[in-house]
Amino acid sequence: MPREKVRVLIVDDSASVRQILQTILSEDPDIEVMATASDPFVAARRLEKELPDVIILDLEMPRMDGMTFLRKIMAQRPIPVIICSSLTEEGSNVMFEAFEAGAVDIVPKPRIDTRQALLECSTRLREAVKSAARARVRPRAERRAIEKKLTADAIIPPPVQGRVRPTTERIVCIGASTGGTEALNDVLEMLPPHCPPIVIVQHMPAGFTAAFARRLDSICQIRVKEAEDGEPVLPGCAYIAPGARHMLLQRIGLRYQIAIKDGPPVSRHRPSVDVLFRSAAQHAGANALGVIMTGMGDDGARGMLEMRKLGASTRAQDEESCVVFGMPKEAIAHGGVEKVVSLHHIPREIMLWYQAGHVAVAG
Question: Which residues pair with 202 in a beta bridge?
């Protein structure tokens, strides 16, 4: 039996944007644009007749803004919604309001200034749609690859097997995608100030991560910031990879520092979890804990296996607590996961692993 297509409703007041989005999505044989609407009232009338699998929603529209419409959808008939709006491109609080209201993903408006920019935006949008179609959305109060899929080899060489890595400070590496913003909120908020250093790749476009880090920093006991090239990695701090750039872990003597690099998308993402995990395997080995959380696709699966082969401990978020069980499922299938745990148990797993390391050193 042929696989059913993901049916999409596009809601945007710009006719040109609707046309661009429809063209991009129609190039994927697994996606069908069910209909387009110029504002939420037109969209609502369409929803009375048939329901799409995914809605792509602008925020700035006449008669009713997209945020109000999003809240109504989530309260009345939850459907996976992707926000596609220029309002979120500078990482404003609108992005967080959208996630809190129930949006499963946010993508920037397609760029058509260069062929490469259009290709990357198009791939990101199509992947977001297919990811959203598998997301579990809950009521709220009122594959076909388009471009060559690169591995971490494009950014960093494979780790050397058998190389001895000195015992040093323990470090936690986390990867997440769809559903990860709220999941990371839940994890980091529960960590005490004396937690191990944490480096995080959350799939996000450029301009989002600085505001995301500031928001987390305001509610967590630990310090949370957007990572900077060359900065040291310190206990009690979490570092989030900047959107659209790769983050790697490096070692200088017995200390870790962050490297931020440009380069092509890896596993169709930039930043890529595979790149971070491979660098952790390379420079931390058994001193690292890898955690892979909710998200679509397989980014991080190969890197987690490399970490595990070089002695790292690894954890995957369980299916029940994931918005999308894609990334953890692939990591498990590749054989890189030591233990599967619920989202709410991840903070405890981090601290137990960290404390066990101190006991081993003291012993």
Answer: 176
Residue among 53, 58, 105, 299 flagged as catalytic: 299
Buried b (16+ CB within 10 A) or exposed e, 221-252: ebebbbbeeeeebeeebbbbbbbbbbbbbebe
- Does 299 qualify as catalytic in the annotation? yes
The answer to whether residue 122 is catalytic is: no
**This prediction's pTM:** 0.71
Contact yes or no for 59/84 (Cβ under 8 A): no
Specify whether 177 is catalytic: yes
- HSE (side-chain half, CA atoms, 13 Å) at 282: 20
Given the residues 12, 58, 131, 203, the one annotated as active site: 203
Annotated catalytic residue, options 177, 267, 272, 321: 177
Reported as type and span, the H/E element at residue 14 is none
pLDDT of the chain along its 363 residues, tens only? Answer: 445 899 999 999 999 999 999 999 999 999 999 999 999 989 988 888 899 999 999 998 877 889 989 988 888 788 999 999 877 555 457 888 888 888 999 888 887 777 887 888 898 899 999 989 988 887 765 433 344 678 888 888 888 776 655 557 899 999 998 889 889 999 999 999 999 999 999 998 777 899 899 999 999 999 999 999 999 999 999 999 999 899 999 998 889 999 999 999 898 889 999 999 999 999 999 999 999 999 878 999 999 999 999 999 999 999 999 988 889 999 999 999 999 999 999 999 999 999 987 655 444
